[in-house]
Structure prediction request, 363 residues.
Amino acid sequence: MKFINKIIVVCLCASVFAGGCGQSGQDTTKSKKSESTDSSKKSTEQASSDTEASKDIFAMDTYMTVTAYGEKAQDAVDAAEAEIERLDTLLSTGNADSEIVKLNEQKSATLSEDGGYLVKRALELNKETDGAFDIAIYPVMEAWGFPIQNFRVPSADELTGLLKHVDAAKISYDKDTREISFEDEQMKIDLGGIAKGYTSSRIMDIFKENGITSGLVNLGGNVQALGTKTDGSNWRVAVQSPDDTEDYLGVLSIQDKAVITSGGYERYFEQDGVTYHHIIDPKTGYPAENGLVSVTIVSSDGTLADGLSTSLFIMGEEKAAEFWKAHSNEFEAIFATDDGTIYVTEGLKDSFTTDLDMKVITK
Prediction:
């Protein structure tokens, strides 16, 4: 199986890339040189805003990079690292002490504020996407071996049996008390489909609390930006090509947005000459196959962007486009198809540049 960063962040210009591929815990703090030839005109305030702190972290089974600019940049980055580790411990299905693992074992619980918020959002997304997003898919993911990388192709009968227990409608949740229970004793959930998007949004909150007005997080390719770069220009984010890890589909110009992509090239295995990827259709139990090779969501809401990148991939281009038309005030999208066509929703037509054939989806 291959784990591939989905998005390349272009921090300075189109030819300079930074990804989340450093060593865990490594951090740097530095001040950028002023671009002005008259250094005497540089104010103390400007010097403070240019102070950079950056840290590479391994958590949530991926490499991450957190970068902030400002007088309290190092404090913000340290607090962001602590938050990433806290959420990983709290929500991971790979941690025996996490509240999600305990919930899956006991079938009922009172969730933390974070866990409760994510369950609420997940159940809302389940309804809005007509079941395409379903946190109860976890038993099927286990059958394919994706959580622990012990891959196998389940039989059709096995999947049919498991799908009887995949239905988020069977989850009882009280948003006021955060009490949750499963009607089905064989149900298990996994919040991984929105956890990283939620984490990046939480880091944005932490940055703001520390007075940061310019910052960027790359959580294994899930990117979210705060404000603009320190020179006032937009962040440039290159969306990786599904066909070539060294190439990209195009470049987005953003500020105050999350950019999250899902594609079958991220995690997969091959058996008997057939490739099986990790984006499972809850209606069939098999990897989604509908002509899409990647879906990129751009939104100010990282949690939403994370959930929709998977959901719209499962829907396919036509249904995904219709979904966008009904929710165009919440997000924009880029769809890459297996015939090499790029579809871009109209809100991105002036901020996404590509050398490929691009068609604009309008309302």
